[in-house]
Design brief:
The protein has one domain: Orthogonal Bundle (Arp2/3 complex 21 kDa subunit ARPC3). The chain is built from 8 helices and 2 strands. Strand 1 and strand 2 form a beta hairpin. With 235 residues, the protein is mainly α. Keywords: Cell inner membrane, Cell membrane, Membrane, Transmembrane, Transmembrane helix, Transport. It comes from Dongia sedimenti. It is a multi-pass membrane protein. It is found in: Cell inner membrane.
């Protein structure tokens, strides 16, 4: 395998993976409003959101992008996801603020399903950026350290770090002061464990996708000498 892209920088398969990455992110934010289960963890009630079933896929796809195309291409995908998510949030807010037709009586339902608080939105945006970039950076560096061996250690290890930051930042900003600290901590720990377990269970699928892309794209990027600056989009 080559350590640099041999084909066009943005191949069709790369675009497809990014499209699924962004779609998963946007859909997760829309369906997050629905609570699907409540059970006890460490003696405290924990409720799952519908988004918990698909949001971890963004980390799996982030792993695939970094493993195959390298940190620079993954960085572009992360920022594309952020930009699309920001646009969607602005569009939903605009729809909420526009005056309703007198014959339309579902404004309350619209706000209940699609509306969001600024605090929740800020928590989501920051947690996404920090978590995804941490995930991508750890995986890229581990690939160099392991000389491309033990893919499972990279996908799981990067998720352990990235999801710990994601869950901690989101829950703290979104819910600090709104629930007892011990409940907040239990929520962070449970979300982290759930997402890491999810990633671990998906490891065989990750292997299949990575193998397919490396074979068909003819690429296998190692980030030797890469500057892991999230904002260096011009590189």
């Amino acid at each position: 395998m080559q350590t640099a892209l041999r084909k066009a920088e943005h191949s069709t398969l790369y675009v497809v993976v990014v499209a699924f990455f962004v779609t998963d992110l946007l859909v997760s934010n829309v369906i997050a409003v629905k609570m699907i289960s409540t059970f006890t963890v460490f003696g405290f009630p924990v409720t799952l959101q519908a988004a918990d079933l698909i949001f971890p896929v963004t980390y799996i796809l982030g792993d695939v992008l970094t493993e195959v195309y390298g940190f620079k291409r993954a960085r572009k995908a992360i920022w594309i996801g952020f930009a699309c998510n920001f646009f969607a949030a602005c569009a939903i807010y605009l729809g909420q603020r526009l005056p309703a037709n007198p014959d339309w009586h579902d404004q309350a339902s619209y706000e209940a399903i699609l509306g969001t608080q600024f605090r929740i939105l800020a928590a989501s945006f920051l947690a996404y950026l920090v978590g995804e970039f941490a995930n991508s950076t750890v995986l890229a560096k581990m690939k160099v350290w392991t000389n491309g061996k033990y893919l499972w250690s990279r996908t799981i290890g990067s998720t352990v770090i990235g999801q710990a930051l994601d869950s901690s930042i989101f829950c703290t900003i979104a819910f600090y002061g709104l629930m007892p600290n011990e409940v907040l901590v239990s929520l962070v720990v449970f979300q982290w464990l759930f997402k890491v377990t999810y990633e671990t269970a998906a490891t065989p699928l990750t292997y299949l996708v990575v193998s397919y892309l490396k074979r068909h794209e003819g690429v296998d990027v190692y980030d030797r000498g890469t500057r892991f600056n999230p904002f260096a989009l011009a590189e």
